[in-house]
Amino acid sequence: MQTTPAQSGPEHAYPTHWEADVVLRDGGTAHLRPITPDDAQRLVSFYEQVSDESKYYRFFAPYPRLSDRDVHRFTHHDYVDRVGLAATVGGEFIATVRYDRIDGRGMPASEPADEAEVAFLVQDAHQGRGVASALLEHIAAVARERAIRRFSAEVLPANTKMIKVFTDAGYTQKRSFEDGVVRLELDLEPTDRSLAVQRAREQRAEARSVQRLLAPGSVAVIGTGRAPGGMGRAVLRNLLAGGFTGQLHAVNHAFPEDVTRLDPEGVPAHRSVLGIDGPVDLAVVAVPAAQVPSVVAECGEHGVQGLVVLSAGYGESGADGRERQRELVRQARSYGMRIIGPNAFGLINTAAGVRLNASLSPELPAAGRIGLFSQSGAIGIALLSGLHRRAAGLVGISTFVSAGNRADVSGNDFLQYWHDDPDTDLVLMYLESIGTPRKFTRLARRTAARKPVVVVKGARHGGAAPTGHAVPTTRIPDATVSDLLRQAGVIRVDTVTELADTGLLLASQPLPAGPRVAILGNSESLALLTYDACLTDGLRPQPPYDLTTAARPADFRRALAGVLADEECDAVVVTAIPWVGDASAADLARALREAVAASPAAKPVTVVHLEIPGLAEALAEPAGEDAGGAEGPAAPAPAVRIPAYPAAERAVRALAEAARYARWRRQAAEPGRVPEYEDIDEAGAAADIGVLLEAHGAGLAPPPEGPRAVTLSAPDTQRLLARYGIAVLPALPAPDPDGAVRAARRLGFPVALKPTAPHLRHRADLGGVRLDLGGETELRRAYAELTELLGKPEETRLVVQSMAPRGVDTVVRAAIDPAAGAVLSFGLAGAPSLLLGDTAHRLVPVTDRDAAEQIRSIRTAPLLFGWRGTTPVDTRALEELLLRVSRLVDDHPEVVGADLEPVIVAPRGVHVLGATIRLAPAPARTDLGPRSLPAV
């Protein structure tokens, strides 16, 4: 491939939105940006570091240096027909990619030519890091933006690495061999496979970036005080006390020059991280915010892989702090480093080969299989101490992070890591903000299919992210967020206490096979409280089995063994109160554990006890420890352990969450499908939408301030819905009584008369609707009544509509949230949804299973299924309507809002009486674009 002369053409403004930070295959980061004329020297320096072999692969001939003409060509672009992107680390190029638009003869061209020739060059030291794959994703997105639909590339057969970059990308492609060169053609339209490849690469890279933070071979604590006290010295001592297996270094620019060791810790001391011989994988930064930039620069120059920034004074401190926080992230990423924090509490990994306590927690928690993420240091401390106090011996922590302002590394990154971490079986998360709900729910759904994800979200009702969290805002209410999380399989709880309660059960017990619960114990009253709690939380309790207050531990053992063997029981709650006698808490614990250990059935068992000191600890004792008591000689504790709770409601709530999650997991194994309907005219709808947007002056691209929605007229709305097989019951305007009569005759009696003015629509409480008007006289009388009650015809905008069969009035809505995506909502019309908020929400696209669950999940759902002897309505037709609306907004992102109200669900069929559609230029789908880190 020989170079060709640069083509002249108009220059366009520098496309800032093409800049992005990406995580590479090894977990490091790189900054991608367009190449500019100012990059001439960087390009020359980059080229000098490329091997002769790589140069030969790029130019098909020996090409030892770039001429001035080459440098000019490769740095001057019009950003339309000629585009170059560079991957940089530390401000220097490590790889480049460019495309040149060509015509059918392979000559330079402009639009409407839709093909471009693409070529890469990657510095040898950075090959194998996935740089070219990331560049291909981004240059392909740029090309699509510039109306280029195909890439062509010529590659020497020996350049197998570059051939693999193209063939593994997942795009539809053609491959041929001519004149000793492999010619590849790639269709740039994203495919299911290209999206799957992109997301798999994203998962591996982001998981690797977290793994580098969690398992460093060496750690430098920067800001270690010369005297005891202070955050830096505390973290250093915590690392030592935890038994960190790697190398430790204390760094403080104020250390005297002759000090090489910090005592009494005995750790090597340095005035700068640059003075450390050998690599530093992780730096814990505990210096004032004003000193952090110089520290980050030194870390970057030394090749540090990641930072834990404990320092405060960033986003939580106001506008200046937010700018410092953005600059901190930009600076760290420019060196390929990732950041936990700032204002973080720290990072913990209890793995035997690491034992990392790079946090302010004075103790390394007990090792276990719970991954814990907290955006709050205070909540993180509370969770760690609470789990240790309640669950010593029962459960432990695999990894913990308190991310502070989470300016870079977030819960999404840790979900990527925990997804396939063999040492983590359960994920607990305290979140105060969800920056990208669409991505979070996608990642959570995938992880929840393997292991439980339990989330408690703070700031639920504040409507804004906490100070310091630079995340996109979302307009959707907390109830909607909760529904979307549950759709993704996330266990959403309301309090930190419930987070710990649910975590204890899930970490120590098998999942229940169903909702049937056996209750046994020595207190009838406590058993009844447990029974009521089960009913409240949607479980199906069996009648309590009262052992009476005279029950001994052996009686508990026999009763528990019996219910565990019962095929009609899915879970067991044991209730216990203090008894009269010499049996100890250890005796009861051993009896219960022996019964569970002897049972071949894997069923969850929990214990609710009131004022029995030592019982919880005895139930959690590690296997083999002395569990002797008053009833007999010492015996080793069985391997099984049982969680204990001080209140029936807490145990049952945890059990109910486990049962709901188990049900979701069973269903996720056989996911629903998005049905195809032969009568849907997707192409016709797309054409209509384009015409309507042009007619309303909305154009084809959203304005910089965001898309402006256009509300369609009733005829346009009905025509668009009809393309998707959704019929709206005809309604004709009635400007006066005579017009109403003419409309009724056209539609056929009986009819309804109702106002359509915005302030009167869906206001049945005002008495503004007249139904079953069987003739002209009734219609004229009703017209006079409504105009007297509601106002003049021009104020009320009365219409005459055909009568629908009697049924249940419902409402179906779809709306676009910029962060969460398209959300489909369903509820009963009127007070249930408006006053009580009884509405169910699902992310689009909705499957047949989603639709069926959605209509059954509202509290007023019994009204659809024959409540109190009423005739059940056609829920199958209702599900189909939900699926059709979901298809409409999924197929056409220009549909930013759809309201169908009321929708009458009759015993046979559904009838849409009113509909509103809003259109806007399609918003950008960041989840379908090239992978990148959130912008700062």
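That was protein one. Protein two is written in the same sequence-then-structure order:
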Amino acid sequence: MSEANYLESLEKAPISELSFDDVRLKRSIQNAGFCYLPDLLSLTDKEIDARFDSRYADSIIKMRKKYRAAPDAFAASMLQPKMVEKPASVKAPLKCRLPHEPKAEATSSIEQYEYDLSRFPLTRSHGLFSAKLEEFEERSRGAFDDLESRSENVMVYQVFEEFSTDLDDLSAAFEELIKRYPTKPCIVLMLIDRCLPNAFMVYVADKARRVFNGHNLWGNFFASLGIRDGGVQGIVKHIFIKHVEERGMPLYGRDEEVNYYFYTTLLHGGLSEDSWSNLWEKLLPLAREVSQGGLGFGGEMDGHSVLRELKNPESRYAPEKAVLNILEKAPDSTIAPLFEASMRVAAQIVDSNRVGSRYTMLSSFGLPEAAMQALRDNQERVPSSTTEGKATGSSQGRRNGAHRLIYLPIASLQLDLSEGVVTMRWPRQQFPLRFAGDKIDYYVDGELKASSEFDMSVGKCILNAVSIAVNPRARYDVELKLMHKDERAGDYIELSSLSQSFSRNKPGCFEFIKDGKGFYRLRGKSERLTKKRRIAYIVKDGYKIVPGQGMKAVSEYETSGDWDDNQIYIYDVEPGSSGSVVNVLSGEELAFWQERYVAKIDKQRIIGETSDGVDLYGCIPNELNTNDGLPSVSIEALDGASALKDLDIICCCDGERVSMPRSAIWEDDADNSGSARIVFDPSKTSLFSRHIEECIIEARQKSAAGKVVFRYRFTVVPIQAFRPLSISIDHGRAVAEYGFQACLPIDVAPVYEDDDAKGECGRLDSLNAWEHYEAKALLKDDFLHVRIRSRESGKETDAKLALAAIDVDMPGRLANLSEERPICLADALELGPSAANFKIVSYGWRYNRAVLVMLGSKPLFFKNLMQPGEYGFNLFRHASLFQQADYKASVSLPLKLSLCYGDDVSTGELKQAWTDVQMLDCAEGLGINGWKLLPAESLGYVLRFEGKPLCDIHFRFFRISKYEESDDKPIATASAEKGSTEVFLPPSVVRQLSSKRGVAVEMSPSDFFGDSRREYATRINLN
């Protein structure tokens, strides 16, 4: 077919009949209303960006570039027939012709192809591979090597994050290479097999999850490459599987000859967007139930438990059959991390900050792009009143004004031994074009450490990589804030924020593992040692590491320097090794561990600590007459259920041994070759007393002569419902009154913290059971220190009850103005946003703490404040909130802060306690509380105000028909100055009123130049 014929056919061919690399791109073009491709390719960049998500806009712009560069070749590629999935086995004999060689028959054995290619020069001089492909191969190999050093089960999708902004380029490079030699595909593939195996694995897995549409994988896959020969298709699949197997990565569905390649490729791609669309329909409701305490452990749910719920056909969270079939082909141990990450993402959606912002920032926790895109689509389908979030970090939202999801990866932490610093790193990321001019501010422990602006690129924005050096310490609390430049005010405003925390995997120390590149990176959550690793331990000054079996000190680091009151110890650590952290002066063991076991403690109900720093819990009575306020402990044995049987669990309360119920959460494999997990829950037994001075839970390994592998100490005091009872503002300071209820007869006395009376007690209050104790403290204070003594048992505890630790900073000018009169729209327009910046600061770490700020019934700010941080909102940023809605009278809009902290049992049921305080007195409108139509002293009428306007006002009068419809053109205008009490009605208005005709007046504030600000107008009917 000639060039003209190709182009003519392309103009007449419907888009539905054309061949696209990405079926979702094709679907998006059709949904946008295009029937023929030339109509689409005639659009400008700006028009394309306006109509499509950035992920599709980029592809369309590249498609248009190819069309303009070589119209005939482009038309021919788009007109080629689509491939249809065939169930034929790919193991049939294949035929491949080498250059200048006689035709030779070959089998599907990759080794046979390698032998045939032994005479082909595999050097750069052959010119087959671009420098970019060789660079991709080097990066892929390094990423796989690094992952293999971290995890026993590596999946290809985990490498996608390394190519966060380059996956499209990698895909284009491979497809250009394959299509460049359409008559010699076997040679190209065999050279890929030898020279680019790692990059090819990334390409195949990425493309598979892109093109799979729920029922067709390979047909869509090979159609985009123009590969029709079944033998060549078999080589592509075989090369991928070969290198997956050589790297020791999981293979799936090996018992199914036809679907073996299908399951392995799709699972290594992290599942397709279609699959995730169905999964999110189940995972989000599951996350809501976990957040309510119905399932999971400690407000979380591990990947094994998630899969058990999904794979249970009786569960309401089971996905559709096609997705379930894929999941059932994979052992839980290989895909559990994927679903643990998905639940952490879902938990963010459930608890997301959706109030007063169009954006919700999320951590992606390593989920593949397909999963996050499907989550975005899921949120777009849900009405904004229930769940929100409408754009991702790599694509544009589809509806103007909708909430958008912005997702960022978790930072990686690296330890630099030579410099003595820890470096936080965020990789380069791609975002929609609309973020141009915005920036991300990076806060570490409440201090601004770095800012990174969104750089404009072709059809997108790039957020460059960020590195922040910090001193080694026991915990890092990070806050990322999306900042948008307000063109009117000239300053940056916060659109959304994201918290990322990094804490110790083991009590008392951070662990950094030396990777294949020689860097020490933070050990991942529940990361298992499968071979000997070099680990750097960071411990506080005054403590040391005592190595156990399997730990060997590295000679060159035996004496460690002090870094910011921390010490570094370097050891070579074997799988199954053990160790402890010990106080140098007292010899007390602070923490123990054994690499075969991972212990977790649910501290959701913690209420403070003792004066000795021991965790403190209270009482939450339940129907079983036990205590729901106690912590629970889970222990995961990485070597299976048999390892759990090797543990002896001992619980001792005030010197007496107590039996503790245990239950199995899951066992990965029936043959005990996988992992298993059990939970010890003290709330299931009545053997724990209401007042425990010291409770110790230990796990000892029987086969190691009773070696302690886990220990946890805590204290229980006989009080319940500790919470703020009221909050007041006293001379600009927030003061809270706290209270709790005694569960036993107790004596309570405050303990002074002042230097001149430190440790001394104040007035003693004797409480009978169920009586209340109250005390005042600043809202920003950390602890309420009291001594609690049980009169019946004589047990005594110095308790430091954790207070809300919230500080509120209000603009002084607004606070003073509010004492005189309500703040209104006139103030918002006159003073502007710069005069209305509020600041909320949280101190310390709290498991359950949140703040909601409302202007009347309209939310301005909401944030879960688990960690220390500084946050802000602006009262005047959206002045329209003060616009008068009811023409009869303005409505009061109190600015109210609601603090969620503590327990409320006033209704007989346990729920979170909310405490309110009014910060400012605000109201709608311009200072006019009402109006009356009265005769003037001379002829005519006046509109008499109740109250005085606080700005100049412009009036526009309209005629109203009998159908209550007003004309667009005013019949008269008038104005009133600030402070006036009335306005005279123009004669034309008086005539209308005298004729009993309807008249409405539009009342608008005037700006500095006397122009009407009609966007803030209020409509009044005069009759």
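Residues 131-150 form the longest helix (20 residues). Keep this in mind for the problem set.
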